[in-house]
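> @MW can you paste both from yesterday?
MW: sure, first one:
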Amino acid sequence: MDETTRTELEAAAFRTLVKHLGERTDVQNIDLMNLAGFCRNCLAKWYLAAAEERGESLDYDQARETIYGMPYQDWKARYQKPL
C-alpha cells in the first residue's frame, strides 16, 4: 500500500471514530478513560499536536470543537453527567 492511500485510510478511520463518539454522547469521557485509556480530550490533544507538528495554527479549544462537534462547554452542558 502506498503512503497516500495509507494516510487516506487512516484519516477515514479517524473521521469515523469522531463521528461514532459524536453519536454516542451517552458514553462519558471518564468511561472511555477507564476502559480504553483515552477520551475525547485525548483525541483533541493528539489532533492539536499533529497540527502543531505541521505548523498549523490551532488552539486547544478549536481542536476540542473538532472532536466534540461543538464548543466543549456546549457539549458539557448538554451531555456530561454529574459525577
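MW: second:
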Amino acid sequence: MLKNNRQTVKFLPLCVMVLLLAVLVSSAAAKAPKYVFLFIGDGMGIPQRSAANEFAGKKLLVDTFPYQGITTTHAADRFITGSAAAGTAMASGLKTNIGVVGMGPALKPVKTLGEMARDTGMKVGIVSSVSIDHATPATFYAHVPKRGQYYDIDVALAESGFDYFGGGTIKDPENERGNASEFKGNAWDLIKENGYKVVKSRRGFENLSKKDGKIFATNEWIQNSGALPYQMDTTGNDISLSEFTEKGIEVLDNDNGFFMMVEGGKIDWACHANDATAAIKDTIEFNRAVGKAYDFYKNHPDETLIVVTGDHECGGMTLGFAGTKYQTYFEVLNGQKTSFREFTNKIVSSFKEKEVTPSFEDMKPHITDYFGLKFKGEADDPMVLANHEITRIIEAYQRSMNKEEVKSGDPRTYVMYGGYDPLSVTLTHVLNQKGGIAWTSYKHTGVPVTTSAVGIEGEKFQGMYDNTDIALKIMETMGLGTTAKYAAAAR
C-alpha cells in the first residue's frame, strides 16, 4: 500500500505538468482571433487624425484604443510610398516597388492575408469607398505588376473566392484600357458567373442577408472614377462606408470566423486636392466604420482583433499656418457645404459651358453659398476675404474660365493648383488657411502614420515598426505563420 502511495506521489508532478501544459496550449489556442478587422485610412496620417479630432471637438474612437503605435511606410524603391506598394506591404508582409500589386520586386506573386484567411476556411470581406479594384483593396486579392491593370484586377476579384465586396464599383470591365494580360469577357459577367450576387441600389443592399452567398454591393451614385461620393456630398439614398462595413459584418459572421479589410479611400483623394473639410469628414465617416466593428467587438471581446492604420500621409497637411500664427479656427470649415469635386462638377463646369463667359460677379454668390467666404462684412468676421485673397481667387477664376489646361508637369501652375481646377483648389486653400491648416504637396509624403489596435494581442501593435510588420503581426496572431516562404521567391 505504501509502495503504491509513493508511486502516486512520484506520478503526481508529471500529471500536474501535463495539465499545466494542456492549459497553456489551450490558452494559446484561445488567443487566435476568430474575427479580424484591418482598417486602412488611405492618406490618413497623424495630421489627418488630429484635424478630425479638433474639428469634432472630441477624440475619434480610434484614438481611444488601448494600443497605439507609429508605423513607417517607405516602399522598396522609394522613400515616399504609393498605395499599391504600401497595400502590398500590409497585405503580405513584403516590401515591393511603386505601382506593384500583390507581388514582390521580382514580380512574383506573394500570398496575402485575405488569401490565407480564405484558405483556412474563414470568410473574407473587402470594403472601400473608392473603386474596389483600386490599389489598396486590390492588394488583398490580386497579383499584377501595374496597378492600372484594372481589368486583370477585376478578373482576380471574380476568381478570388472572397465572400463580400462592398463600396465602389469596378473601373474597366471591358478592358477598354487594352492592358489586360488576357481578355476573358466582361468582368461583371465573370463576377456573376463565379457566384456573386451584385446589387447596386439601397433597396437591394438593405435586403442582403447571409442566404445570398457571395456578394458584390455598390452604390447607385458613383461620383467619379468608380468611387462613392465624398461623405459631405452624400444624400439619404447613398450607402456610406460605415453601412457597407456593418452589412459586411452581418453577412460574414459564421462559425469559422472572418477577416475583413475596410479602406477609407477618399481621405486620400481629398488630401490630394488639398480639401481639408472633405478629408476630415471622410475621416470621421471612416471612424464610424471602425465603430461598427467596435460594437461587434464588445459582443465578442475574447474573439476579435481590430487594427486601424493608414498607408501613408497625403498632401503634407500641416496644423498651423503663417497667416494665423499660433491660432486655429477649425469652425470656419463648417462654411464649406460641398467637396471641391462637386463644386467643380456642378458650378465651375456649368459656367464653362456657357457661350459667353460669365463675369466674376456672377460667381461670387456661389463662392459664398458653397464655401462660406464673404466679399463684404465686418472686419472681425473670419469669413470675410482680404484683398490679397480676393486677388488670388479672381486669378484662379480667370484660369478656370479660360479653360487653361493646368498640366501637372507645368511648374508655373502645378505648385498653385496641382492639376486640379484652379478656382476650386484655390477656394479650399483660402478657407483652409483661414482655419489654420496648410498643405505642402498634392502627393503623398514620407512621414510615419499612427496604428491603433484593440482586442486579442492588440499589444503587439504598440511601439514603432514598419508597415510590413502589420501583416506579419496579424498573421502571427491568427496562427497563419508568415509569408517567409513566399517572400524569398517573390524578391
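> thanks! The first strand starts at residue 35 and ends at 41.
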